[in-house]
Amino acid sequence: MAAALKGGNVFAEGHGLEKAADDGEAEEADDESAGSPAANVAPQRPGRLEKVAEKLAEAARSRDGPAENGAAAEVANGGQMEGTPAADTAEQPDQAAKPVKAAAKEEPAGREADAMPPWFSRKTTAAVETVKRPVEHTHGAGRHSTRRARHSNSVEDTWLQVHQRYLKEAKEADSHGGWDVLFYGDSIVEEWRGTFLGAPWGPFHDVRKVWDEFFGRKPYTAHSMGIASDGVEQLAWRLQHGELPVDRDRQPKVIIVHVGTNDIVGECTNELGAKVASGIEDILTDLHSQLPATHIIIMAILPKGEVWPNRCSGAINTANEALQSLAQSRSNHLHYLDAGQAFLSESLDKNKFEIKETLMPDSMHPSAVGMRIIATRLEPLVSRLVATPLETGPESERR
Prior knowledge:
- It is a single chain.
- By secondary structure, the protein is of the alpha/beta class.
- It has one domain (34-89, 101-123, 134-392): SGNH hydrolase (Rossmann fold, 3-Layer(aba) Sandwich).
- 34% of the residues lie in helices and 9% in strands.
- The protein contains 12 helices and 11 strands.
- The chain has helices at 17-21, 48-62, 71-76, 85-88, 142-150, 159-175, 187-190, 205-214, 232-240, 270-290, 313-329, 368-386, and strands spanning 181-185, 195-196, 199-200, 222-226, 254-258, 295-299, 307-308, 334-337, 353-354, 391-392, 397-398.
- The strands form 4 sheets. A 5-stranded parallel β-sheet has the order 4-1-5-6-8, sandwiched between helices. Strands 2-3 form a two-stranded antiparallel sheet. The chain has a two-stranded antiparallel sheet with strand order 7-9.
- β5 (254-258), α10 (270-290) and β6 form a beta-alpha-beta unit.
- α8 packs parallel to α12 (368-386), α9 (232-240) packs parallel to α10 and α10 (270-290) packs parallel to α11.
């Protein structure tokens, strides 16, 4: 998959959300990460990195082989592992405004998880401070700081373990004919499973009921494969390393992609939004290349924060406009859906809106009611596309 985003940094979900929720005054924004539970764990304690190293080593042993790239050894020696909850608690001021990057195109690695993600083995070029910084309750920081105190699942299930679980699910599904509809993305997609990083999480519990109502009782089969904290690079890597169906004679009828909010952090410039859209475009292009008989729905990045517009609104709007334009240019197989407007209240003052707390209690993740709103807009499109096979091949043969 062609690389389109500069950087390679892994951001925990919602990193820099105080900035997104600010009322637009950059000087009042706090640089501290305050987003999803993955980003808001307590400062690293003595022995924390060693515990993460043990988890990786255990995961490697379960695959009958040592962890590649020396990832476990690196962490044991104090190196930073990007893409894990432990690493995401460290502040990276020089990298905060850079998005992640779609992984370079490479041959699929199969489904044995024999390759470690590249961000697991990067070495830190400078010492990382782990001093706890006080939370400055600027405008928009209240909801997710409350959730931060509630959550305790950020270490128990690691990203790699969730990916390995998905490999097994994909392999088993292929042996039984595969799924008709697949969802890929970040924690908003993982919400459909009622989990966060693979572990059940209370606020997402009722979302599973919404899934069962809208997608679990249909003539088609549907499955969700999202991982909390994923950005463009992480999703691209997963799709290249075994999470896509391998039976090309039984391709999914529809794939839904919802990713990008974790890449729009830091300064949230319009340029950043364009780069995020470019990276998503690489994913969509690669998906169509591998699965030409599959309809693809790209979901717009949802608004986040407490008021709208805010510091990240321009970047989000830029990304969404680019994705909508892309879908229009590839309308035969690519479809764009934006449910974001439903999350905004009536105008408060001078085109300022509130992001409804009942629909997005923590300023980033939709509640079960919010996910129901998404489902009511998404499911009819999915049903229509399932019933509309794509024309493929030089002779426009229907599958």
